[in-house]
Amino acid sequence: MALISAWPLVSPILFFLRCFSSSTASSGGGIFQFDIEGSSAVSAQEATVIRGQQQAVATGSWVPFAERCQEGFYLTSSGKCSPCNCNGNANRCLDGSGTCVDCQRNTTGEHCEQCPDGFIGDIVGGVPTFCQPCPCPLPALANFAVSCYRKSGSVRCVCKENYAGPNCERCAPGYYGNPLLIGSTCKKCDCSGNSDPNLIFEDCDEVTGQCRNCLRNTTGFKCERCAPGYYGDARVAKNCTECNCGGRMCDSQTGECLADSPEVSSGTDCPTISCDKCIWDLTDDIRLAVLAIDESKSTLLSISTGVAAQKRLNDLNITATHLQAAMSEKKNHAVLWTIQVDDAEDEMNDFLREAAILVEQGNEASRRGLLIQRETVETNNRATQLVQQLGNMRDNIQEIDSKMKYYTIQQELSPEEIAQKLSVAEEMLKEIKHRKPFTNERQRADEEEDAAEELLQKVEEFHERYNDTRSLVSDVLEQLSDQDVKLSDLKEAIDQALDHVLRTEDINKKNTASLQRREEQDGKIKEQIDEVNDILLSATTILAGPQKVNSELSEVIKNVSGFYAEIDGAKKELQEKLANLSLFDDDLVEKAMQHAHNLRRLADELDWNLHGVDANGLVQRAINASNVYENIAGYIEEANKAALLALNTTNQVNDAAVGIDTQIVYHKGKSNELLNRAIELHRTADDRNDLTIADTSRHINGTLDRMNALRSQLMRAITKMQSAEPVEARERLEQAKLKTAEAVSATMTVTQATIPMDENVRLWSQNLQDFQHNSAAYHSAVHSAGDAVKKLTEVFPQLLDKLRRVEQKAPANNISSSIQRIRELIAQTRSVASKVQVSMMFRGQSAVEVNPKINVEELKSFTSMSLYIKLEKDNPQLAASPDRFILYLGNKNAKNYIGLAIKNDNLVYIYNLGDQDVEIPLDAKPVSTWPPYFSIIKIERIGRHGKMFLTVPSLSSTDEEKFIKKGEVLGPGSLLNLEPENAVFYVGGVPQNFKLPPGLNLPGFIGCLELATLNDEVISLYNFKHVYNIDTTTSPPCARNKLAFTQSRAVSYFFDGSGYALARNIERRGRFSQVTRFDIEVRTPTDNGLILLMINGSMFFSLEMHNGFLYLRYDFGFNTGPVLLEDSMKKAQINDAKFHEISIIYHNSKKMILVVDRRHIKSVDNERTAMPFTDIYIGGAPAEILHSSISSHLAGSIGFKGCMKGFQFQKKDFNLLEEPGTLGISYGCPEDSLMSRKAYFNGESFIASSQKVSLFTEFEGGFNFRTLQPNGLLFYYSEGSDVLSISMDRGAVVLNASGTKIQSPDRNYNDGKTHFIITSVTPERYELTVDDKKQSKKNPAKDKAGKSLDSNKKFYFGGSPLRTQQANFTGCISNAYFTWLDQEVEVEDFQKYSEKVQASLYGCPVESPPVALLHKKGKNSSKAKGNRNKKVGRDKDKISQPSSGLKKLYQEVNMQRDPQCHLPMNPKAIEHAYQFGGTANSRQEFDHIPKDFNERAQFSISLKTHSSHGMVFYVSDQKENNFMALFVAHGRLVFMFNAGHQKIRIKSQEKYNDGLWHNVIFIRGKNIGRLIIDGLRVLEEPFSSNANTWQVTEPLYIGGVAPGKAVKNIQINSVYSFSGCLSNLQLNGRSITSASQTFSVTPCFEGPSEAGTYFSSEGGYVVLDESFSLGLKFEVVFEIRPRSSSGILLHGHSVNGEYLNMHMRNGQVTVKLNNGIRDFSTSVTLKQSLCDGRWHRIAVIRDANVVQLDVDSEVNHVVGPLNPRAIDHREPVFIGGVPESLLTSSLTTRNSFIGCIRNFMIDEKPVSFSKAALVSGAVSINTCPAA
User: Residue 891 and residue 899: Cα distance in Å, rounded?
Assistant: First the structure.
């Protein structure tokens, strides 16, 4: 107490002592030290002094103990002085350890070898000589880095939380300030909570801190006040409300309306002043400024003074001085730059003047040249005349000569006279030649010609100089503009520097005044320190008192210890009484506890040890599936309740005792009171025990009463039924009771068979607690599992027979549903058993008959099996007889089988296809050289070709050895014809009564075997029919190390479509928060499957895969119903057998985001609601959930088949196999299961691949097929005019090879069964084999040499996009193979095919046909395609139709106005212009490419668009290595192509998405690319390339590309269709108008438009795939505005002949149906015209056989025949038109609809045509012309 009373006197003394010590440390320790860069560098002199001091004493000198070592040395443990190792940064270190003390130059560490945080050394590696502050951004003065480091010659900063940038030179988002300004820091943005709540940080100016985008009607620097015209509290209440003052202002806080400014009385001369809004704003700003000044004043007054502040001011002063000097230097530089720029400007002006002079001289020279040219022309003309005159003269001379001769003859002149006359003539000619006029003219002409040529040369030189000068003018002007910009920037920088200098001077003045004030305060502080010293002296005196009180307290403690001893005695008595108290209910508690513990132990052992026995936890799932231990769970629950009540009582008593124990230590006097409370607690405990027993009794009695009540209620119901039913029904009920009793007895048999599992589980628990690979308990556990499964297997067939008989005779549906449930449980048990990945040990006399779990029909043409094998080499039986049998799969008659054996130290694969055995020995790896652990064997058979693989792994790594051996049947057989009732599958041995074929008749196997897969299906030895001589106790299985075989087993899980994983209480790993995230990786080839599902009542969340793309739907209790988020743009295809990382992010409880492969796919907003779930299903769900109320919201109820890994919730991993609710999945990801060996074709689909091998050389191929259609194209290949095709014609199989046809004799191959085709082409013969029935013909082209192809040629399965005579195939094709050249025979993986159009690569829905269809031709059989219009398109979302043939497919329509219609049939459109867009792949395709295209490609096109992205033109080769494209990106035109491996990209600077027409020319030349826009902008890019290496192929795409195209080369946003109009397409100067195919392209309309889908007169339709049920009940509603009085509105059909057709004919709307019985229809004719230019509503409702048609409230209906076998089935729906081949002959119109359709709904759900499966022809989605 004395110490407490003295504390008020002591506390101020301690406070002043703390202040004194802090001030001392501040002045002496230099806490506020600021290092300028380079100030702490070690000088050479200092380093020399330190080294000298360290060397002053000898290193090994001995000193006495009492003495100390000199400075720079330390005393070691041996007593010697050793030099300090401080790297020159300290001269003192601690004795003994040598740790350096007082490290200098900003270093730290035991040897001053490190830099502290925030500092950096002077060298990159090694020990720094000194450390300086991080320059982040300025050393010491403004260092905002946690640390820094050097990288690549520069300093990298690790910034503090509020800073960002490479050198922390700017503030992080959400903060403001200028770190480059000394004294400035980054502060958090303060917008008073009135900024955008969706932003993570408050949005303010990064320098000033002024808030941007103030919300909630606020304004101000910090959004701290209400906006003008509003009043309230913007900071706290945030209730800014609009003023109600009739347009006048109001008080910003109270809302009171402010009066207008008072009017001056009329007696004065002052004018009337009316205050506007600015006055009030000014008033508010002044008031806020006053508040800000007051805050600044208080901030300034609160600034502390002291030595640190003085040092800071000195540093600021020095910095300002440095800054002033630097700025003056910058200013000098600026002046110099100004002078230089002025000089450059003068020189440029001189240069421009000279250029003008040169231009004038050039013009003068040009004029002179023109004059000379004219004179030269005149001279030339005169010379021409002269030549002409000379020619005339020559002619005259010749005439004179001839006349002279004639004259001579006539006059009879003598030769002498002739010679004389000639001489006279020659003299006359000489005189003519020497006449001067001719000579002078010739000389003058020559001189003029020379002068003209010289002048022309000068003119050309002048012109060349003029062009060069003119080309430089633009560059000079551009440089001048750049210099002008730089000068303006420099001027701004100088102005800013001057402002900074002026501000610095002002700050220095203020700091000087502040420094003086702080010096005065420093004197006052010294006076206060003296006063504190006086107080300390007095405090020492006062402390003597508390010391005395302390000694007194020690005496008190001794007395209290005596009290504790007495209290201990009382405590023991209380504990004895409490022990007696608990005796009353001891028996009850012990019994309950013991029973609960026993039951819990049994359940835990069952759960744990089943999981341990099978690595996949699958046996446990089998037992759970059979519901054996449901009662155990109930008992445990009841025992837990009883035990919990008893435990609560005991715990309460114990708690009371503990409470007593803790309270008696406080005071001895309270022990009697505590004892009384203990007695009361004892009495209370007795009462509670009585209550507990009573409650337990009431609970048991209540349960018995309810059971008796239910029993009596059941008896009453039975009595009531007996009295209500007639005698006949009563007899049936009695029979049902008997059969039900049989089923119950059989079920009891199953239960009794599983009861021994309880004992086995206990044994497993004991044996598996210390399990190792060599543990014998493991063998025992597996043996017990085998016994249990064996007993189940023996009982299940009997139970199934009884259930079948009961089900056939059961009168009530509830019995059938129960039996069906039991069947499902048995199937689950079988499925789980087949996944038990445990081997079995065989001793030579044991055998297992396995249930193959596969239809033997699927093994006919292709068989594949894999298994693990380990030999027991030390067994003496094996040494005596090494040849051993391994397995046999075949018929009991030893015909048609496959087998494995060990013969002659080789593994031998044997198979027989009905004739002779084929043995394939693996002699490359003798069995004696196999390792003593598991190896894997895989055997395959494709037709008559066999193959065997052996893989020998390594236990320590992933290294492995692989061996392969092949064989082939020489005979005609190619099918493994297994009979389902006679087929057996023996492993390890055979029973004694079975006779093996001679090649396999060997002793049984010795060692361990484990089955893996059979035809891609997981299979296990534990899914057996019978076992023979298998005893797992004496022959334990072998443990298999799974490292080398499947590295991904630890993280991957395989789902086969029947199982699922269930993670309960997912919040145990992470919480639902502001950002909730699910991640999972999936890999699958299938089209549909459930990925994630969460359910809570009617609320759900489902992520599915639908048609290969993601489909997310969820409802968290929203008022607007479920929300849909799907990959409608088809950005990410999931079913390509590759792993895809899927992320679902739920942000702020209101936004769902879908991300695939870290790429944003789509997001959608919803009402703000948290996720209300705790459990999540992965890969599937129980059937009762999938068929519950949420089934209508799911795209399908199909489980996922494929692989999954990496499931995370909130980035926390889950091991799905360790989750208790997981059922039917396994580890690993088998590659075979991900191959697509099957493909389903719907009659409008195909798949294609290519090979650089001709099929007309020697080749063989084969495949399976199943179909119900009599006609269809199965396979197609062409080389020029030569065609190789396999098709069905009226049920027969036909091979057509270059005109040579081979047809099968049978015509019943459309029976829905699997058939196998083999086709062989040799130089001699063509062969066709169908189900081992061979037909052949001579090859007429046998003398032709084999063809060698220069490029890959495509081949097609299921149909062809080319013009053929056969319809596309409807059905399944599987297990296809080819053999050509020396390639391996492999089954084709359809997943790898380059082209897949509407084909499903998983599953085969072809069923056996109805009996009625076997005896008549189907109405819907495929018809031969007469032209290209009926062929199938090239990608998944199309049924292609060439636009040139649309009028052939659809009936020709009148192009003028329909006389019944108000609107013209064709809206006003721009000629030869087309509208693209509406769908992602809207486009035209052109097949013709000119021959010289690869050398020079020049295109011109006109376009207009408002879109910022889209593809305009694209062409490439098949692999898209060579390509050329024109597209729009961010509004700019981009011309892109490749030159070798280099991509050339030419991009416009301006944007052209302005909605105006632009002419674009793009050219790819031999070595240059050009982009010319509107004839004004010419962009060029040279390149070097070999033209021969750049080759592209058809088609040429305009306006868009086919799905999957161009993504390799173009960014994804520009790959989608161009949205706008294109026209005037020209290729190399020639117009291109006829597209080979058109998809969602219409004419480019003029005039207004509105929302809707337009079907033009050129024809087209929209296909809604599987979104409509043609069965019992549906409702379709939509609106139309037709432009023609006739046309098909809607059509749907099924393969069994049922159809629905809705059409118009002359304004009458008709609905016609066929429900499998006959046709029936109803019609409505409106009083006004349906074609009046207005919108009309049409509704069709069907309920069973009643159909109602409603057109604008005019209603009619029809009642058709009732089909008792009618079922709901989903089929594709055609809107606006339908292919000719699908129409029935009874329809009155076959024209396609012309006009607009909108608001299309099926069963009250809106249908978006932009998400349709196909938009074919001239259909415009989402845009409809209004006039």
Answer: 12
CA distances from 1068 to 1071, 1102, 1212, 1237, 1327 (A): 8, 21, 10, 42, 66
Range 1706-1735 average pLDDT: 86
Strand partners, 242: 230
Report DSSP state, residue 960: E
- CA-closest candidate to residue 988, choices 906, 930, 902: 902
* Rounded CA separation 927/1507 (Å): 70
pLDDT of 910 higher than 90: yes
Distance of alpha carbon 931 from alpha carbon 560, whole angstroms = 79
DSSP per-residue letters across 1749-1762 = EEETTEEEEEE---
Inter-residue contact 1272 to 1367 (CB < 8 Å): yes
> d(Cα 1443, Cα 1636) in Å, to the nearest integer?
6
Cβ 1229 vs Cβ 1334: under 8 Å: no
Distance CA 1065, CA 514 (A): 65
Helix orientation angle between 586-613 and 776-809, rounded to the nearest 10 degrees:
90
C-alpha 1055/C-alpha 1224 separation (Å) is: 7
Q: Please state the pTM of the whole predicted model.
A: 0.40
DSSP 1077-1091: EEEEEEE---S-EEE
8 A C-beta contact, residue 96 and residue 79: no
Asked whether residue 54 carries a pLDDT value surpassing 80, the answer given is: no
pLDDT at 597: 60
- Output the pLDDT for position 223: 92
DSSP characters for 106-117?
T-BSTTS-BPPT
CA distances from 159 to 134, 143, 149, 452, 1780 (A): 10, 9, 12, 79, 71
- Candidates 1137, 1110, 1613, 1640; CA nearest to 1396 is 1137
Convert 9-39 to b/e letters by CB count within 10 Å (16 or more is b): eeeebeebeeeeeeeeeeeeeeeeebbbeee
Give 99's DSSP letter. -
| Separation between Cα atoms, residue 1538 and residue 1583, nearest integer Å | 10
The whole-number pLDDT of residue 555 equals 64
Helix (H, G, I), strand (E, B) or coil at 906: strand
Taking each helix axis as running N to C, give the angle between helix 671-724 and helix 630-663, from 0 to 180 degrees, rounded to the nearest 10.
160
What DSSP string runs through 825-836?
Answer: HHHHHHHHHTT-
For 1629-1653, the three-class secondary structure string (H helix, E strand, C coil) is CEECCCCCEEECCEEEECCCEECCE
Please tell me whether the peptide bond between 137 and the residue prior to it is cis, using omega within 30 degrees of 0: yes
Peptide bond into 1037 cis (omega under 30): no
Q: How far apart are CA 585 and CA 689, in angstroms?
A: 7
What's the mean pLDDT when you consider all of the chain? Answer: 75
Convert the pLDDT of each residue in 1737-1776 to its tens digit: 999 988 888 889 999 888 888 888 877 666 666 778 889 9
Encoding tokens for residue 392?
């005339």
- Helix residue ranges, H only, 1133-1220: 1183-1186
Closest by CA to 1517, choosing from 1385, 1705, 1350, is 1350
